[in-house]
Amino acid sequence: MNSTSRTKRIIYAFLLSLLLLLWFFPFVWMVFTSLKIENEVVTKVFHFFPQNPTLANYIKAFSSSKILRWMLNSAFTSAMAMILTLVVDAPIAYAFAKIRFKGRNILFWAVMAGMMVPFQVLIIPLYLQFNSYGLINTMSAVYLPRIALPIGIFIMKQFFEGIPDALEEAAFIDGASRFRIFSSVILPLGKTAFATVTILSFINCWNDFLWPLIVMNDTDKYTITVGIANFQGTHGTQYSLIMSGAVIACIPQFIFYLFFRKKIIAGIAMTGIKG
Amino acid sequence: MIPGNKDNRDGWLFSIPFLLVFVLFMLYPLVYGFVISFFKWNVLSDKVFAGFQNYISLFSDEKFYTSLWHTVEFVLITTPVLLVIGFLMALITTSKSPLKKVAENVFFIPYIFSMTVVSTLWAWIFQKQYGLLNKVIGLVGIQPVGWLTDPNWAMWSVCIATFWWTAGFNMILMSAGIKQISSEIYESAMIDGANYRQSVFRITIPLLKPTIVLCLILQIIASFNVFGQVYVMTGGGPFGKTRTIIQYIYETGFSYFKMGYSAAMSYILFFIIMIVSVVQYISLGRKSNE
Fold first, then answer.
1. pLDDT value at position B290?
2. Measured between alpha carbons, how far is A194 from A82 in angstroms, rounded to an integer?
3. Which CATH number fits domain B61-289: 3.40.50.970, 1.10.3720.10, 1.10.150.130, 2.60.40.420?
4. Which terminus has fewer CB within 10 Å in chain A: N or C?
């Protein structure tokens, strides 16, 4: 009895490892391709490992495209989105959690209903709007429509509700104003929630494709997502070069993941808790 | 509850920054887009009021129907598969296997990379002459398949890349749900002699229902908005066989500059998504109340 369950467990572990290898394999393939010389990729003979590993493609990717520039653009717009999301969304989340004001419920549901509007539906009017402000082809066009993040408000509201009222009341008795309480009592306590929200907002903006594709016209101003699509388009069949570009584009996100793994996962899990 | 009550004033003061952004970049475009949809507007020319003309033209536009159908096709294929894969992954990552942490990382990592990177990578794997997939099936003597260029395969290939990319997201939601189920329930079921399959079907799935419903709704909305991976991998080809509705909206607006027509299409899409969400909400909500 015991030995059969043991063999079962070994078979299960074996199959699972196989599945994991398979699931991970595209990354390996991406890296291997990027290290090959072009002739080795575009050939009838099939080599799994790079025969003459080379970094030439990486050098070429950096020199023939603006890939570094694109990454900086992405980093800048995502960072702006992240900061502004907090500036704009944290106060209202606090108001929803702690202030009993008239119209609070209606306002809250209006904001949550905003979550149901797919961004893609707004692209035409948003484009025309930004065009009339003269903001097309500027960095602010990329992040401005991204800073109202209803899910972020929801997460912060949940968090603020968990802060005991007694803390605020004590400050009130000492004569502090709402704004003071918010900045010196609530904000320092909210770090965990802020981390989750900033990470969600960062990923949201970094991975955006359609909107920057529409508002950015100069190759200089592309974000990395648009840049890589463009890079693939202009280098048609130079697969090892294209893969090296893809690997480069992965690096910042990978580092980001290594540092914030837990927060990213917690953030996604939190969006589900609402039910 | 707090002395010197200025709650009404403070509540709205704290809401102002968000409300400004919300009105400017959400409500206003939502209304503005609706207004535009009743105009013939070529950007270069003047706006001309056209009544329902844009909407009427839409219903005789074959490209609109085919694009909408491709999106629906994508929704129908990806939604059930992604839910099932996500659920199976969640079972693995919440199991007692020593590999569960590794599994969680491996399954989730594709999701953190941007869609264009994932699409470029899969476009290369699916490449007809030199791509990995055809090399591998060539080993067992199968003729190369035009994964992205054969009309019968292109949509499936895009779907496969999407499975790989986003299944990890559903996994996280579902495993968070599974972790909320008390382990005592499983233990007492084990004592009563339930096997693994029974505990999955009789305990996990029924108790996970709220999470599954949430995943379903999020997934359908996300799938309806499919654009990038198709645009990068096939460009909507072969012969427009994978052109999605968002791509058609994008092309009508930014290649042909028919803003009114494009806005009208956006609204039809919005309307469909709303109907689908509401129907789901009502039907699933009713079932769980029974």
1. 44
2. 10
3. 1.10.3720.10
4. N
